[in-house]
Fold this sequence. Notes:
Layout (H helix, E strand, L loop, with lengths): L1 H16 L14 E2 L6 E3 L4 E8 L5 E8 L2 E9 L2 E6 L5 E11 L4 E11 L10 E2 L6 E2 L4 E9 L4 E8 L2 E5 L1 E2 L3 E7 L4 E11 L4 E3 L3 E5 L13 E5 L2 E3 L6 E6 L13 E5 L5 E7 L7 E8 L3 E9 L2 E2 L4 E6 L12 E4 L15 E3 L5 E3 L3 H4 L9 E4 L1 H5 L15 E4 L6 E3 L4 E4 L3 H8 L7 E4 L8 E2 L11 H6 L9
Parallel strand pairs: 2-8, 10-18, 20-27, 28-31, 32-35, 34-36
Antiparallel strand pairs: 1-3, 3-6, 4-5, 4-7, 5-6, 7-8, 9-11, 11-15, 12-13, 12-16, 14-15, 16-17, 16-18, 19-21, 21-24, 22-25, 23-24, 25-26, 25-27, 28-29, 29-30, 32-33, 33-34
Amino acid sequence: MRSRFFVGSAFFAACVLAPTLAFAAPDASPPQLGAISPTTATVARELELAAPVSDAGGNLSHCIVFVNNVYKGTMSIGTNRVYGPYIFYKPDTFTVRIKCFDTTGNEAEVSGAINVAPAVAADTSLPTVGKIEPVSTKPGIATTFRVAYADNVGVTACELYINGTSKGLFVLKGSYADYTYTFPNPGTYAMYAACRDAAGNRVDGEEVRVLVTPEGANPVSATRSSLYVTPGQILSDSKDGAEVVVFVRDENGQPVRGVFVAVETSRPGVDQISPIQSVTGEDGVAKYRIRSAVPGTSTVRAYANGVILQATAVLDMNFKGERSVPQAGSLIKLTCPGGEGVNHPCRTVYYLSTDNKRRAFPHEKVFFTWYGNFSGVVEVSEGFMAAIPLEKNIVYRPGIKLVKFSTVPKVYAVGRAGQLRWVKTEEAARQLYGDKWAQNVHDIADAFYGDYSFGSDIASGTDFNPAYEANIAVTVEGNL
């Protein structure tokens, strides 16, 4: 009995003396997640997915991310946020889902849509910058200079440079820019515009020479300068067009470079006039194109550096759908009867010169050194053709091609008026026409030997300038 009492007493004491154990209530608060950011992205560009996060129990364990319900891995947990890098590889709208867990297994989830745009290539397209106009003015007179520009994104600034020094920014006006400047002294000034786009791409426009002359002084000769229109007759359909070629010369008959030329007709507002080259180049030549939808006849005149040229030309716009009698400067050929062979006389194209003679193009290779296509050729009757005296053939335009005769083992450069100059060495040919000079050689049949004359030999690249020769012979008429 005593033994059992002892045991019972010990058990009682243990129950009375042992401390009371407290069990914590389980964490029933799940994490809290905010909206996912960003909501937009770009293909192949890394971004940081993120969402605000908090947990009342302070036991946040880990977070994972899904894209279009595909598991993509765990995310980093920072102060009050969860985040991680991600890259989308195609444009689309993706559903992103983030799930976060605490240590007791509570979880929270948030989802959102991210619109992924195609990758945008860096803007490497350069602006285009035109030439500054006008290229002549008077000292002490405020002159507004204008330059045209264009860009795939948009030009943000154009800067004026005179003799290499910046004079400030142009005023941008959409597709062109203006800058008003006053030259204090007469002289010739180098001027160009430099334009930038939004990506910082910069282009310097072509430098022009601005002539600043005192009142009463002008290098342009009204009597020595000239112009002509080719062809002299066009259809009045607003599509067919004639080219006005203006030769600006000084009192010594020399070309005047860098002169702004304007062209007008006796039917202002009726005829459409557009510039091809409004400022004269090294050859002193400017060009315009004229079209019209109204039949009739117009007298064409030109102004060069403010001087009215005495020379004029007449342009006939015929409404009947066909050209009438061709005038000087026209390209003419016989009307083909149909079914003719390649050697039929109607295949030959002639140039009608100002001395009322016709000169044949021996073949297409010669023709295409002067013209880009056959659109200006006028078909005439056999009687009309027979009434025009035939002269020597048209020769290759100077400076464009190298030539050789079939039975003569020499290569020639072509100079003014068909003067051939033997290029004595391959090195000289390479200096003039590059490493592929041989591809620039045209064969001439011996039958056309008499169309050409011969000048001094060319021993090196300094003996001949192809660009200069081409620039002083821009028209067939000027090379006769």
